UniProtKB/TrEMBL annotation:
InterPro entries: DNA-bd_HTH_TetR-type_CS, Homeodomain-like_sf, HTH-type_TetR-like_transc_reg, HTH_TetR, Tet_transcr_reg_TetR-rel_C_sf. Residues 36-55 bind DNA. PANTHER family: HTH-TYPE TRANSCRIPTIONAL REGULATOR PKSA (PTHR30055:SF226), HTH-TYPE TRANSCRIPTIONAL REGULATOR RUTR (PTHR30055). Gene3D superfamilies: Tetracycline Repressor, domain 2. Keywords: DNA-binding. One of its GO terms (molecular function) is DNA-binding transcription factor activity. It comes from Thalassospira xiamenensis. The keyword DNA-binding applies. Pfam families: TetR_N. This is Transcriptional regulator, TetR family. Residues 13-73 form the HTH tetR-type domain.
Amino acid sequence: MQTGVNSRAAKREQTRENILEAARQCFCETGFDKTSTRMIAERAGVAEGTIFSHFETKEQLLISCVGEQMAATIAQALHTMDPEWCFVDKLMHIASHRFAQIALRPGMWQVLLQQMVFSPRKGAVHDLMRNSGLIAAIRALVEDAQLDGEINPNLDPDQIYKTMMALFLFTVHEHVSAQNFDCEDMCATLREMLEVQVRGIWMRRPELAA
């Protein structure tokens, strides 16, 4: 009986993976709006209703197409990270894994940026980053660096993490917009900004207006 249950679960998981891969191909070829769930179903070799037994909406399907690969990539980056590296090098290690993934399928990220960054659904991008583990990974690196005295422990770790995420997203947006998906170029862009951010830009504290 248990064997039968495991077989059905494995078949369902394989069907889900087939749908995700078909969706990635269709989104890259025709964009989000012009890709119908019927098109995805035909390519995956399933009934259209089967898609909705795995994903509630086409938007959720898009998020899963990227998010699940992101999660696997970030897990691999954390597993291969040297704990003796400095804060910037640890961030860059995670980023390099992400940028390499983007370079393999840039069309998917173009669709994601077009559909999700300016999505009317508040928090769509945040949900993607959180569910992939990227937010937790960067926040943990910030807190560790503060405990080690590498970065200012008096600063709010949430504000530091948000700054790091902003630099990461800027790098992705800039290179996707310019059709430049070279992983080394993307890493160079991000590293320059991270190093400026970590060093700081003040020569003296400004007198801020009330």
